[in-house]
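Memo to structure team: turn this sequence into structure tokens by end of day. - J.P.
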Amino acid sequence: MNWIKQNRYWFSIFSGIILASGVYFFNPFGLNAQAAKVVAVAVLMIIWWVSEALPLPVVALLPIVLHPLFKISTIEETTKAYSNPVIFLFMGGFLIGLAIEKWNLHKRIALNIVKRTGTSGDRIILGFIIATGFLSMWLSNTATTMMMFPIAMSVIIVMKKHEQPGTNMFNFSLVLMLVIAYASNIGGMATIIGTPPNVAFIAFIEKKYNYTIQFVDWMLLCVPLVIVLLASLYFILVKLLYPSRIINSPEANSFINSEIQSLGKLTIAEKRVLVIFCATALLWISRDLLNQLHLFKLDDNMIAIMGALALFATPSGSLEGKKIKMVLEWQDTSKMAWGILLLFGGGLAMAGSLEKAGIMDQIGQWLAGFSGNSGFVLVLMTVVISIFLSEFTSNVAQVIVMAPVLAALADALHIDPLLLGIPMTLAASAAGMMPMGTPPNAIVFSSGFIGLKDMIKAGFVMNLISIIIITLFSWYVLPLVMSMSIK
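Reply from structure team:
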């Protein structure tokens, strides 16, 4: 065991190669030669993803080499997956998020929300939940947490300096850190661009079924779900598990006000970013109405790139030497998570090869024999497996691997693939028990205010709540909002 820990890299690398080779040469599933090659490559990618032997985006590039090499598909066919239209939706969302961060608009929004909710212990936490959840709808959950984390740390320091008798600062500090992570994870569920697993699933559905999940339809389902989850987060952690009993704090109020004052008035650049952001969101929401005018045909991917292009073409109101400085400039994109886009492409390439070889249909038929007759139980079990699996694996890689399997199962049972795929995707973003479950969990755990047993306790309760809410919304609300015919 010690040897494995000390040589984890080599163990992960060679275990992937050995298992992939075993699948091909021993062919335990009795597949034809072509299908065996496809499964072997998929096994190698999955093991390297799960073990993190190599960075996830690096593993995602394997199909570009291995598929043509083993004559699974041509280089032209393979690389098509890396330019899927939905990838550009997320790219546009990333760029808009970068502009919001660059000009500190996110901090201004967060501080003003916290100010308006009040500065008793419970209200401070409520303010952070609302601010974090809202920002995470449009920014990555990691970026949102990184932005809220120092603000929360400063609030904790101020509150500790003026600790009131009969209050529980340990509970306040613990809960404030936890809600930043949990609200970041939950808020990302609300929009297609909110978190990478959403985009990964939507890209798969579009490629496999030629069906586009509308931006507004996703919000109609997931925004109410997110509101219920955030409300549950507040009542469970603040009222039941860790009450702080801190009454209104003038000191915390002074700190929030001083932070807002330090930002000054809205700058020209902030105003222009805000206008472009609101216009882009409005176009996403009203796209179907505009398309009914038959003047043009918009889709969500086009709108995202239009918003990004507008940022690059809009002056910020300041000069750099004699050159006009734009709201977003190309050097700003060095901070963008380009690897996530490659990860989507690699997942789509792998899923496409498995589909073409008939593997997913076989798995679906096999699973259908064990599924029973209760669709509700099937949705429930999908959510349970997804939420606890995501405590230990990358949620993006998990969705990439599970989406084709669940689609094949849905096809075998003649049910809507969205009924299994969407709850699986949402549950993959709800991990709350382990620090390695999501990057936000790891960030707040590093604060020193959270013990592992406290995170496991709070996370387990929130996992149970998430299982109930996601399952009920998926079973009762999802069919009313969106559905697709099975081909």
